[in-house]
Design goal:
Elements lengths: L8 H8 L7 E6 L5 H10 L2 E11 L4 E11 L3
Antiparallel strand pairs: 1-3, 2-3
Length: about 80
């Protein structure tokens, strides 16, 4: 909750202003893809996507999955 504003379109607009033209933002999340966050990304990035990554988690002795969000600014 303390960082909730970051995950909004307004918060992401602040982030985008820090990137170079054609710059890339990446975020690793332990949660499944969140449609609302991806939608906010799509409003501020030229290209936005969410990718589920599966991997073997040896400490839990099972396959785990996380999400990587990618956003690219206009080049």
């Amino acid at each position: 909750p303390a960082h909730g504003a970051f995950y909004t379109a307004a918060g992401l607009e602040t982030l985008v202003r820090q990137l170079h033209r054609g710059g890339v933002f990446a975020l690793w999340s332990n949660e499944p893809p969140e449609p609302d966050f991806l939608g906010a990304m799509e409003t501020v990035f030229q290209c936005a996507s969410a990718h589920v990554v599966e991997f073997w988690n040896a400490s839990q002795d099972r396959t785990a999955s996380n999400t990587i969000y990618l956003g690219r600014t206009a080049g």
